[in-house]
Design a protein that fits this description.
The complex is a heterodimer of chains A (about 100) and B (about 270). Chain A has strands at about 5-10, 20-30, 30, 40, 45-50, 55, 60-70, 70-80, 90-95. Chain A has about 100 residues and is an all-beta fold. The radius of gyration of chain A is 15 Å and the shape is elongated. Classes of the chains: A mainly beta (about 100), B alpha+beta (about 270).
Chain lengths: ~100, ~270
């Protein structure tokens, strides 16, 4: 069995117009099926450094956080175990949250 | 907020062959030549005009790196080089050549006229240069084991030029729909401009189509979710039907379809 481990960061440029930005991060980690189609998602353990991120109560792969100008959020991801013959895809997706 | 529409994603596919990762770039140097009078190039996408199809004389140089093979985690006598040609529309694949890498790789591989004929001419074709396992190996974590498991691949795509756009498709968010007087979660809307039974003009669209942003983003992504296919098929059927229905008054009294009008496409 294998586990996927990966880390990536999200930063707001120190020259950005906004002082801070509310973001929603959705980390997809599907197993790839025939013809490259995305199948079921693996469960993930997500560790966050640099910001306080709130997981979505309905989906722990969705996190909301605020990044300040010049700030950086680092995410470390570890998947559940999966079959050693499978190809998996890591696909973080970030959207700006509408202003409240 | 100025960045309300900000969206970014990154994709990394992780194949389970990490113990053979040194071979991943073995065929990255592959090159192709499409016409006799052209030099080899490492470009990977080509637009082929209809009149150029007859002149196609395709030769591939695998340029496999001997140094990479020598230092790889799998002995070269267990590896093969395969050149395939696929017409994705016809779902037809031709294995052009497969050679064992126990000896030196061929310098050039010709994609001959017979292959092109079997694949509908060659204007819509993907040629792949692939380093793969020549025979099955004992299963080991991190290594390929099935005959044909690929370790390194380079693709060359030949496609016909894109036809002129008949109607644009734009995304629309909740607020946009509300401003148009529709519910916030409207799926799609077709605004017919006119001219469906007039000679096609590439500078003038016959309609404008809006699709809800949530759906548009999912469908426009490189990695299509599994459920996107039925939705795409639904939209592909619904949108032309809407255009036909909206344009009914433009063509109901016509005796015939204009020879180069968009209506002919229906």
């Amino acid at each position: 069995m294998l586990r996927l481990r990966s880390a990536f960061s999200v930063a707001l440029d120190s020259k950005a117009d906004e002082e801070e930005l509310s973001l929603k991060l959705h980390i997809h980690c599907p197993v790839l099926e025939d013809e490259g189609q995305e199948g079921d998602n693996l469960n993930l353990t997500i560790d966050v450094k640099g910001v306080a991120a709130t997981p979505d109560p309905a989906d722990p792969r969705v996190l909301r956080f605020v990044v300040e100008r010049g700030g950086k959020a680092t995410f470390t991801v570890e998947s559940e175990e999966y079959d050693a013959a499978w190809t998996v895809r890591l696909r973080p997706e970030i959207d700006a949250e509408a202003a409240k | 907020m100025t960045n309300a529409n900000y969206h970014k994603s990154a994709t990394k596919d992780i194949r389970p062959f990490f113990a053979a990762a040194t071979l991943e770039e073995a065929v990255d140097g592959a090159k192709i030549r499409l016409f006799e009078d052209q030099p080899f190039t490492d470009a990977s996408t080509f637009s082929i005009e209809e009149q150029e199809v007859q002149r196609l004389a395709i030769v591939v140089k695998p340029n496999i790196s001997e140094a990479t093979l020598a230092g790889g985690a799998i002995p070269r006598n267990k590896l093969a080089l395969a050149i395939t040609a696929v017409n994705p529309f016809l779902k037809k694949t031709v294995l052009v050549q497969k050679v064992s890498l126990a000896k030196e790789a061929p310098d050039e591989v010709v994609i001959d006229a017979e292959v092109l004929e079997r694949l509908g001419g060659g204007a819509n074709m993907t040629i792949e240069v692939v380093l793969c396992l020549a025979s099955a190996l004992t299963k080991q974590v991190g290594k390929p084991f099935m005959e044909g498991h690929w370790l390194s691949k380079k693709s060359f795509s030949l496609r016909p030029p894109k036809p002129a756009e008949d109607f644009g498709v734009d995304e629309m968010g909740d607020d946009g729909w509300k401003a148009m007087g529709f519910p916030a979660k409207t799926l799609y809307y077709v605004e017919y401009y006119g001219g469906v039974n007039e000679p096609a003009n590439k500078d003038r669209s016959i309609a404008k189509v809006y699709v809800h942003s949530d759906v548009y983003k999912k469908l426009a992504a490189d990695n299509l979710p599994k459920m996107s296919r039925p939705l795409m098929a639904f939209l592909a059927a619904e949108i032309p039907c809407q255009i036909l229905a909206s344009s009914y008054s433009d063509w109901k009294d016509s005796d015939d379809v204009e020879s180069i009008a968009r209506l002919r496409l229906f």
